[in-house]
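seq as requested:
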Amino acid sequence: MRIFGRIPAKLNERAPARAPELEELQIAADPPTLRRLASLLQDVAAQMETDGSHFDHVHLLDAWDAHGTDVPDIIITRERDAA
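struct tokens:
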């Protein structure tokens, strides 16, 4: 597993074109949100197995219909397709 991330563009006007690889990730959330995230990860893992090489990616914002909220997006890809 590899983790990539970006800081908000408003904080870094010269953001790299590709998301840099991170050594660590911190998730600040309450237990219900963590359970919801865990459920999404389980569902995406199953979809990845079912779709095989046709699996592309899933956005948390799409899965949770959370566009326009304060929820940060998490993009789930196969490790070989990262960044």
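The longest helix spans residues 31-51.
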